[in-house]
From TrEMBL:
This is RagB/SusD family nutrient uptake outer membrane protein. It is found in: Cell outer membrane. Residues 94-215 form the SusD-like N-terminal domain. It comes from Carboxylicivirga sediminis. The keyword Signal applies.
Length: 518
């Protein structure tokens, strides 16, 4: 079923939060009016989606915060070279502040729906449950992001009053318990994939996120040390077969074919009028006729080299990285620029790094960065890689190959002439499979919002060895030049700092509650 939800009109009646501060301007319609019909409840739900797609959340700043601090990206923004890219973010850094504030805006709106819809029974109970399920899903996703980025955070699950607005930091365990509850509720209330509206999460999306929660809680422990791997499998297997891989990987990144595919589990929707900043963030500065793009985010050279060294003939390489592009000069002329790996010298803003091709503007003659392209943070290929990792932890690689080989077979077929790489996996030990699958997430999903989380969920030693050390020991860098930055070895970088505005405004959180090292 399809319904065209244009979800990004800011609704004047909805709550806006600053830190964990709620303001109503102007006053919004009474809850008993809004929640007396499916249409009214959907209006409030649209506000949740508007908040999650906002510039300060998934529209841009979630990418600024998590990509820059993942250790896998660089930037043409010089200021970021000196703070977040070398893990020197402060509690007052705008990205740190904005993601926190926007997250609580989503939570406030989801709480409003959950509290009020739970008090009424609408004529269409199925639709009522579906709206409730979406509110639980969005709240669960946002708390899941918060606890992984900041650690324990204020846990607010009811519409706030002035007496309850300032909450202390909850423990990480308590936040995870709430995330599990929210995704469990979402899975029980949401429609299935065959009846859910386009662009809205179906029940298996909640199962996928629950599996991710349990994989995160498992950390670097084996199945013999924790039952979280079994819990992860029990949720992930519910998603198997509910979606399907598109035939050609390249179509996932073409603006005309990327939205609402058979592979999409959940996507953040946008359009040219209410655009996400994908083109603006990921297209080279002066890379379009209007010279309206920023060129903020691009992969480090080890991302390209590791992928090319592993699978030289992998069609995903050309789909993922862009190394030749058109630059628009101030005099109106254009210039073809060849970047890494064609250009290997250092300290050149335009050439020393490749670009991420997935969100690079398709039509460089456009005068603006506006796009109809949605951002897809969760897709079915990720589920298959998750099942491969989980199965290997539980039982070794014998039955895990089938899942990852589905992804590899699609990759081979995503070329004008079928490639021979990446070849199917076989003959690995459990330890070899574990190392390989963690890298396969990167090859398949680079730039899709997972790097911060996947590389940290197995603990600091994994992050240090596979991100920090790999970067710092790469022979292609020259850390004496500005654009190449060396990453510090510091475990504080497993978390972001609690924003300074929250410490200042919330009497129940003090400087003593700040994360270690900040």
């Amino acid at each position: 079923m399809k319904r065209n939800y244009i979800i990004y009109t800011l609704l004047s009646f909805l709550m806006t939060w600053s830190a964990c501060t709620m303001e109503e301007e102007p006053k919004f319609p009474a809850a008993d009016n809004l929640f007396s019909s499916v249409e009214g409840a959907n209006t409030v739900l649209n506000g949740c989606y508007s908040a999650i797609a906002d510039f300060n959340y998934y529209g841009a700043d979630f990418m600024h915060l998590t990509y820059f601090s993942s250790g896998l990206y660089t930037s043409n923004r010089d200021a970021s070279l000196n703070d977040i890219l070398i893990f020197q973010q402060t509690p007052s850094l705008n990205f740190v502040e904005n993601v926190w504030k926007s997250s609580y805006r989503v939570i406030a709106r989801a709480n409003d729906i959950i509290d009020n819809l739970s008090l009424v029974e609408l004529a269409d109970v199925d639709e009522q449950n579906n709206i409730l399920g979406q509110a639980y899903f969005l709240r669960g996703l946002t708390y899941f992001n918060l606890v992984r980025i900041y650690g324990g955070v204020p846990l607010i699950t009811k519409t706030v009053t002035f007496e309850t607005i300032n909450q202390p930091r909850a423990s990480s365990d308590a936040v995870y318990e709430q995330v599990i509850t929210d995704f469990g509720m979402a899975a029980s209330l949401l429609k299935d994939t065959d009846s859910q509206y386009d662009g809205r999460p179906a029940a298996p999306a909640a199962n996928m996120l629950l599996a991710k929660v349990y994989m995160t809680l498992a950390g670097n422990k084996t199945a013999g040390e924790t039952d979280y791997w079994q819990k992860a499998y029990d949720e992930a297997i519910k998603v198997y077969g509910k979606y399907s891989l598109v035939a050609d990987y390249r179509t996932l990144w073409n603006e005309t074919t990327s939205n609402i595919t058979s592979e999409s589990v959940f996507e953040i929707m946008g359009n040219e009028e209410n655009t996400l900043r994908l083109h603006q963030l990921f297209t080279a500065s002066n890379g379009n006729a209007g010279r309206s793009v920023w060129g903020r985010i691009k992969p480090n050279i080890e991302c390209y080299d590791l992928h090319a060294d592993k699978y030289a003939d992998d069609p995903r390489i050309a789909a993922t990285f862009k190394s030749e592009w058109v630059k628009y000069l101030a005099n109106g002329n254009t210039q073809i620029i060849k970047s890494y790996p064609f250009f290997t010298k250092r300290n050149n803003k335009d050439k020393s790094y490749p670009w991420l091709n997935k969100y690079y503007i398709n039509d460089h003659t456009k005068m603006n960065y506006n796009t109809n392209m949605n951002f897809v943070p969760f897709r079915y290929a990720d589920v298959l890689l998750m099942l491969a990792e989980i199965e290997n932890e539980l039982n070794g690689p014998d039955n895990a190959y089938a899942y990852v080989n589905e992804v590899l077979a699609r990759a081979r077929a995503s070329a004008d002439v079928a490639a021979v790489e990446p070849a199917d996996w076989t003959g690995m030990t459990q330890e070899e499979f574990r190392a390989a699958i963690m890298m396969e997430y990167r090859y398949e999903l680079l730039g899709e919002g997972h790097e911060w989380f996947n590389d940290r969920r197995r603990g600091y030693e994994y992050f240090k060895t596979n991100v920090v050390d790999v970067h710092n020991n790469h022979p292609g860098y020259d850390f004496n030049v500005q654009r190449d930055v060396e990453l510090p070895d510091n475990s504080r970088n497993m978390l972001m700092p609690i924003p300074q505005s929250e410490i200042t405004a919330n009497p129940n959180i003090s400087a003593a509650d700040q994360n270690p090292g900040y």
